[in-house]
Amino acid sequence: MIISASEGDGHGDEAVTPLEAAFEERACAQRAGTAVFMEGVSLALLGRVEQLRIRPTNASGTVDDDGHQQVRLVAGDDGPGSTCTCTDSVGGAFCRHAVAVALVATGSAGMADDDEDDEQGSTEDLFADDPVHAAIRVFLSRVPRAELVETLLDAADENEAVADVLWEATVAWHGRQHGAV
Questions:
Q1: If DSSP codes are grouped into helix, strand and coil, which group holds residue 156?
Q2: DSSP states of 137-153 as a string?
Q3: Which pLDDT tens digit goes with each residue over 131-163?
Q4: How confident is the model at residue 92 (pLDDT cuts 50, 70, 90)?
C-alpha cells in the first residue's frame, strides 16, 4: 500500500509507504527520546545497519553494535511497532537499534534533503568515506539558525583559527552583498 504525503504548501505530493509515514524522522525522535535518537543516528551514519530488508509496511535488519542486534519494524493499523534483541527494547521501548534501522529503511538518515548531494557525491559514499563529517553535516543542516550562530561564535571564542576563517568568510560575504568582486 502506498499513501500520499503533501509538502507544507499542499503541493509536491509524493508517494510514501506506510513504513515511511510511521517511521518518519520526527516521529522516531519523539518516540525514542533525544539521547537514544542521537545514538541511533550515529549508528545509521556509521553504516552499522546490515542485512536490511524493506517492504511497504515493515522492515528488518541487523545492527552491529557490540554484537549483532536483530530489529524488526512494523507499520500496523494500531501504529508503529518495533522489536529488537537488545536489552534496551524490553517492554516495547524504541531503542537506538530500531532508530538506526528506521532511519536507513526510510531514507531519512538526515541527508535526504541535502541539495548538495550531487556536488558531494552520493549519500552512501559520504557515509562510507567520513561518517563523522556526515554526522556534522546532518547537525549543521538541521540545527535552528540561532543555535548554529551561537555554536560558531563559541567555537571562534575558543579557537583563533576558527575565528580567522569566520572573519574571512564574513568579509567575503559583505563584499558580495555590496557588489565587490
A1: helix
A2: HHHHHHS-HHHHHHHHH
A3: 666 667 767 777 788 888 999 999 999 999 999
A4: confident
Gap between the Cα atoms of 135 and 139, Å rounded = 6
Q: Is the dihedral of CA 59, 46, 144, 98 positive or negative?
A: positive
Cell of 160: 583563533
Strands 79-84 and 68-76: antiparallel
Phi, then psi, of 112 in degrees rounded to 5: -60, -35
Q: Is the pLDDT of residue 170 over 60?
A: yes
* Cell 507544507, residue located: 8
Q: From 132, 124, 137, 126, select the one nearest 49 (Cα to Cα).
A: 124
What is the Cα–Cα distance from 171 to 148, expressed in whole angstroms? 19
Q: How far apart are CA 15 and CA 86, in angstroms?
A: 33
Question: H/E element holding 14?
Answer: strand 14-16
